[in-house]
Amino acid sequence: MTANDDLDLKQWTADWQAAPYDVESAEQIRHYVKQRTGLLFSFAIADVVVGGVALPVLVYLAMTSRSDVETLSMATLASITVAAVIFGWWNRRGVLRSSATTITEYVAISAERIRRMQVAWRIGWIVLAAEVIVFSVWIWDRLYSGTRSSGPGEERFAWSWLGIFTLVAIVSLRKFGRWLDRDAERFASLRRELEGDYDSSAASTSVGDSARITSRGLRDKRKPRRPPLT
User: Fold this and answer.
1) Could you list the residue range(s) of the whole structural domain that residue 141 is in?
2) pLDDT tens readout for residues 205-230
3) 52 within domain boundaries
């Protein structure tokens, strides 16, 4: 291979590695990342609102309660709230804002965001189970362990409230899980489409440039070589 052939091969390799993506597919990925950025910010705001409202109330109830069980229950719920908020912010670290400048970086941050949200969904079930247990202990203590007897109406209200709270949380988590599955499939479809466009572009570039290199090589072989100096 001559020096010109070597330069052409390097140029062909660089062109193949920088083969352009389909504009429409690339724009879909950028739009997808922008939408998920807004969603993550809404989750972060929700954490601040829930934590800012629930935490002071739970701390107040824990400090003013005359029952040891109620104090422990409120303190446990406050701890769960703090842990959930901290985990939410920790889980979104590095993916809350998108600083991607290339399509490869857009794809990478999208995949990581989906993985983080799936982790948060699984942790959500653990948080719900812990809250239901604590609320059950608290309600039982208030209804059956105090000096004041509770009427049937109060019992129905307390257990109905816990049941509705649990049901709404379960339905919300199940819907969020199904949405995550659909979103992961949508991202996988966009990724396959984008990689297909890249492979097609790279293949066409490979065929055209390889033909030029081969043609130049044949021309060089047909040229008479200058005899070496003696």
Assistant:
1) 22-195
2) 444 444 444 444 434 444 444 344 33
3) yes
